[in-house]
Amino acid sequence: MPDTPDEPTPVPAPPARPADGMPQEILELRASIDNIDAALVHLLAERFKMTRRVGELKAVGGLPPADPSRDRQQVDRLKGLAEGAGLDPEFTEQFRNFIVSEVIRHHERIAAEHAAGRLKGELPALDTYA
Ligand SMILES: O=C(O)C(=O)C[C@]1(C(=O)O)C=C[C@@H](O)C=C1
Questions:
Q1: Domains in the chain, ordered, with CATH?
Q2: Three-state SS string across the chain, please?
Q3: Mutate to test the pocket of ligand 1, among 67, 99, 105, 128 (most ligand atoms within 8 A of CB)
Q4: What average pLDDT does the segment 25-30 reach?
Q5: 12 CA → ligand 1 middle, Å
Q6: CB of 103 sitting under 6 A from ligand 1
Q7: Which range is least confidently modeled, 36-40, 87-91, 116-120, 125-129?
Q8: 93 C-alpha to center of ligand 1: Å?
Q9: 67 lines ligand 1 (CB under 6 A)
């Protein structure tokens, strides 16, 4: 047993911490995360505006809410994009399915309203299904 105490293990300097104790870098990352979340909300709102109109056109045209061939096309494309972007393709598929299941729920409600005659007069005339 040596009679000198062990050398203290060097401890890395802690990250800079503002008053609330949270490392500064986490606060900066959170600011960017908040910006990204806001963009996602706005993008989703735009997507739902588009799908609402698709739902109206489908209801008027007597088309079913879901389109399995379009679903497959979207999933294949998005999984390919996910791989290229370093995102888990399975997660990407589930995320897409989560959104589209809500779209289909909206489409079904729009179709029911159309069937009940409540959409009459709200929709512009359609050439396609006239
Ligand atoms: O493209 C359509 O036919 C839609 O109704 C839109 C949408 C989508 O949200 O992207 C929703 C349901 C379909 O199964 C496929 C795609």
A1: 25-115 (1.20.59.10)
A2: CCCCCCCCCCCCCCCCCCCCCCCHHHHHHHHHHHHHHHHHHHHHHHHHHHHHHHHHHHHHHCCCCCCHHHHHHHHHHHHHHHHHHCCCHHHHHHHHHHHHHHHHHHHHHHHHHHHCCCCCCCCCCCCCCC
A3: 67
A4: 97
A5: 53
A6: yes
A7: 125-129
A8: 14
A9: yes
